[in-house]
Structure to design on (178 residues):
């Protein structure tokens, strides 16, 4: 788990500016920094601490609560739980917390297709495809719904983050053989 968290923090350090730019097109421009802060806190959590709680606290706000669900699912998958049930449960909780549904141009547009995939590699691909599709959607939730064009023409930063998190999980499990 520690290796996975370190890899996630490393990947999001590389993506911080890109995710901030995506978020700036339709929000307040801090998505990359927020997720990175949460992932660094999760990675730094000691053995007795809950990395998901550390993430939620460090990331803060709505993003912290919503992405904590994704992180919890990813950690469950890395511990042997099937990707479909773990991602499906996260999507359900996020839908309730964020009052969002597929097509609202949110992280759910990546997460829900991933939850329906037959295996982890397919889930990562489905998430990437779902994230890319958000560029053609008008936002119905979050700050993006208030900007001109409701974010159309830009990939949703949250959906992109879900796709990247799953890509790192696939890379990690492939390299470790788990």
């Amino acid at each position: 788990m520690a290796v996975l968290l370190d890899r996630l923090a490393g990947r999001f350090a590389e993506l911080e500016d890109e995710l901030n730019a995506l978020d700036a097109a339709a929000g307040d421009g801090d998505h990359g920094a927020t997720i990175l802060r949460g992932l660094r806190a999760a990675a730094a959590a000691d053995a007795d601490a809950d990395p998901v709680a550390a993430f939620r606290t460090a990331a803060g706000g709505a993003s912290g609560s919503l992405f904590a669900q994704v992180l919890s699912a990813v950690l469950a998958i890395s511990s042997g739980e099937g990707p479909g049930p773990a991602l499906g449960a996260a999507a359900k909780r996020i839908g309730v917390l964020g009052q969002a549904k597929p097509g609202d141009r949110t992280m759910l547009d990546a997460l829900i297709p991933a939850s329906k995939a037959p295996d982890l590699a397919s889930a990562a691909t489905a998430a990437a495809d779902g994230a890319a599709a958000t560029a053609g959607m008008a936002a119905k939730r979050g700050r993006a719904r208030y900007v001109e064009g409701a974010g159309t023409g830009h990939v949703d930063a949250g959906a992109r983050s879900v796709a990247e998190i799953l890509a790192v999980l696939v890379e990690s499990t492939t390299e470790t053989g788990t």
